[in-house]
Amino acid sequence: MADSKFDRDLVRGSLDLMVLSVLADDGRNYGYEIQRRVREASGERVKLPAGTLYPLLHRLEAAGLILSQWDDSTGRRRKFYKLSAAGRRRLKSDADAWLAHVRCVRLLLSSVVDLDGPGGEPASA
Amino acid sequence: MADSKFDRDLVRGSLDLMVLSVLADDGRNYGYEIQRRVREASGERVKLPAGTLYPLLHRLEAAGLILSQWDDSTGRRRKFYKLSAAGRRRLKSDADAWLAHVRCVRLLLSSVVDLDGPGGEPASA
DNA sequence: GTAGATAGGTTGATCAGCGATATATCGGTG
DNA sequence: CACCGATATATCGCTGATCAACCTATCTAC
To answer: How confident is the model at residue B124 (pLDDT cuts 50, 70, 90)?
Structure first.
């Protein structure tokens, strides 16, 4: 499961946001690790394949939101990314827009489903 | 504002969900009204243009999630849609998946932004 | 050596969103 | 009546993101 058309589109709207968030958290990270961070953070839900990840990073860099720097000092050839000032601003505004949108959808869903659905409050389970 | 690349992709992941939710709320509704309901429910954020709306409805119908019926009795030629049994099941499961995903992204964002950001609690504004 | 993980990358097919465009009706105004 | 804007549905074509598949290269372990 977790690879239907719905799941892909679900992820689509928050992929950039998730990657920017990971970089904000870590300060500095490289593609392969970002991939694992997103996969783990999402509970294996978001697989973020290489064919999506690298074009995405290049797109964010071209937009001036992240900065790259090659690092071979560890033996492994890695391209590290970090947020630019514009990237930090973008993360903030995109996060606000995302949260606002989530509130709207939750409102629509409120009369339809149980918002504290399966896995909602693990502490009480 | 509210029509950037980010906003479009933001919406993409929950458009089907929003339309299904509106139909679950209303029981029975037609395209033009669904369009207005979504626009209002989203605080004018989601415009849902005709070029998106109608292909979307056709797709949901082809998938057996909604059922259509023409109605000319009011003078206006309208195509009413309602959820099928499969559509109700799908709404429930998609809503659960969406809520689970939202929880993950919120977790990633928690260390980055204020989750009760602007417009969070209108009562206190 | 060779298999698998790490690390980065591209390409092509697919498909959804949406602006533009088309059609038709209804109600109101000049 | 003619005209216009709102209502109502629909399609076409462009754009752009996702991702399976594929490629290269290095490191570790067997």
So the answer is: very low
